[in-house]
Amino acid sequence: MKIVKYISAICLSLLIFSACESDLDKVYYNESEVTPAVLSGIADTYVLDANKAQTIAIEFKWTNPQAGYTAQITNSLQMALKGKDFENAITLYSSTEEGSYDITTLDLNSKIMTLFKSYEMEVTVEPYDFEFRIASSISDAVDSFYSNIESAQITPFIGEPEYPKVYLPGAYCDWGNPDDSFKQCQLLFSANDDGIYEGWVVFGNQAKDGWKISPEAS
């Protein structure tokens, strides 16, 4: 009797599993039904300025790709040296969300330095040719599909940006000396070049004796 019950339970389970499986909507990836993203917004030439590090260098735009069915697609904006077939490509931005991407001068210059380092190339202040594309992926098990390729000639900068600054003479530094450009006194910097200056200053017990902010070293 127990054996009959066990067999009945197993059969019922198989019937339920079979019924559930048949009710599922199956989707299949078909490469011929894919619509890649279309990349735009890239000019022919750019000259990156270290003193405008926080300004937007390039405003990348692209249309949303389609996989032929409802799927979560990861879009990666790639940059590579022109003529290298995207070997050692650098990913500038990656997201499953819709939208564009604005890269700052500082970030773009940093990515360029990383790319040249992968080729063990020495960087000089001169124009180089780069290529950009969108790589779209729906799964690690399926090859990515790609947008059109856009090209641009970009001149990078070398060294750190020179941020806007103001001087902070005061009693803590004996009010400095205008003849030596307040070298003894602290500076405040505007990292975003937005008129907001920041910095750490140790006044000790001399804050009460006064200090000033001067846009010039005089």
From TrEMBL:
Entry keyword Iron: no
Keywords: Signal
Annotated InterPro entries: SusE
Limits of the SusE outer membrane protein domain: 23-125
The keyword Signal is assigned to this record: yes
Signal peptide extent: 1-21
Name of this protein: SusE domain-containing protein
